[in-house]
Amino acid sequence: MLARILILLRTRLAAQKGDSALPVAALLVQGTVAAVVCGLVRGEVPPFAYALVALATCAALVAIPLLGELSRLLVADETGDWVRALPVRSIELHLARTAHLCLALAVLSLGALVPAALLAKGWDWSARVELVALGLGQSLAIAAALLLVQALLRGRAQGLLVIVQIVLFVGVLLGASVGLRKAPEMKAWTSPAAEAGLALFPPAWFAAPLGDTPPSALWSWAALAATVLAVVALIATPAPQVRRFQKSASVLSNVLAPVRRLALRLWVRGSERASFEWLFEALPRERDFVLRTYPLLAVPVAFLWISGRGEAADTQQDWLALLLFLPGAYLPLLAAHVPGSDSFQARWILDTAPLERDALDNGAIKAIAARFLVPFYALLVGIGTLLGGGAMMLRLALPAFLCGVLVLRGTWKTFVVDPPLSTAPDSILIRQDWFGGLAVIAGVLSIVAVAASRLVRGPLEALVLALALLALERALDRRSRLRLG
Predict the structure, then answer these.
(1) Is 421 left (phi over 0), alpha (psi -120 to 50) or beta?
(2) Neighbouring C-alpha atoms within 13 Å toward the C-beta of 245
(3) Which residues pair with 38 in a beta bridge?
(4) CA-to-CA distance for 307 and 315, rounded, in angstroms?
(5) What is the pLDDT of residues 343-400, one digit of tens each?
(6) Running DSSP on this structure, what letter comes out for residue 389?
(7) Element (H, E) at 59
(8) CA distance 478 to 38
């Protein structure tokens, strides 16, 4: 049995492409981030607080890959039917997958834990080793929690699963940025009982054994108990099946049906209709697209929400305008993920279709605008209304939406290399030199947002601005139509 499990494990490792078997680049990123964060608090806080920072950083650096490129290790292999035809048992396949997951977790975790342990000031070797061991246990607990969530919420609760994963992703990034502000207060943190609510923070459970004051019996065993439960959950929980295509439409699709019909009547040309209809239906069903792109839009919204609360009235108007306009800078990254699909082998349908690439791209742009941008900007208006700026949000919603469409159209050919849904999700091209352009777009949109919040004071000004942006969008759309002939 052990021999067959090892053979399956070696096969899984050999199937990884390129340098993913040993992700050197990812390990360098993990180590650099951990070294910088731990270096900021090194020698300034007691051992428990240092361990808390190190373990929280490691948790963030492990959770994000588990929601992205490593998420495949939490679900059943798509080649299961073929593998089950081999002379192996189901338990052996399950244990091989679990071993693969644990090995990947160990490699990623050590990339952050080893620098953190080496940078610990005044620690003996046993404490450093204990920090690494506690971090590995924490990573197992994170993986077990995500596996249980996926096992419980798959199928009909797929939308809830996406929400859970987005909340975790955004929470990780916000915690990493806001947590360092508490560094001065951490000098008094010697155990999980040092701060109200700290006991509810999972990394504190694993950092408790390294506290200056002897923890209670409960805290002494919390980390070990969580690790043991995580191992049991990983072994005992069957991997959930990859969600298959479902014919039934989602609630949001039904709500957006009038928007779809209006776009088809007034905006989408005949040559673009196939691409528009296809992506309107298919993109929301692509799990990797949803999990990788929704957080891209949720992160700036969360940061602006935190920054805008408690500001003076005039300043808050600027923040609310930024809440509407600035997420448009992330739309090129959303567009860059459009080529990714689990069914990328069907690319031949696109390659042999009697359509020009421009018609395919234009239909895709309009599908994204109707299916994703309309509900997204409606959500932004709702958030701004909760923050007390409902009138301004209603005035600027349409101009902000049109700015988003213009950004999407203007950057499409730069960021979208392959046709829609034609590439494996792990083969999507993301270039480092794109981020300079994104920074420029963000700067321009910030200027537009502040100017709009101060100059567009009534419905007439909002209408004039919207009509100007609409005319620009129509001109660009007409130019693409002339290019197609």
Answers:
(1) left
(2) 7
(3) none
(4) 10
(5) 888 888 888 888 888 889 999 999 999 999 999 999 888 888 887 778 888 899 999 9
(6) -
(7) helix 47-67
(8) 54
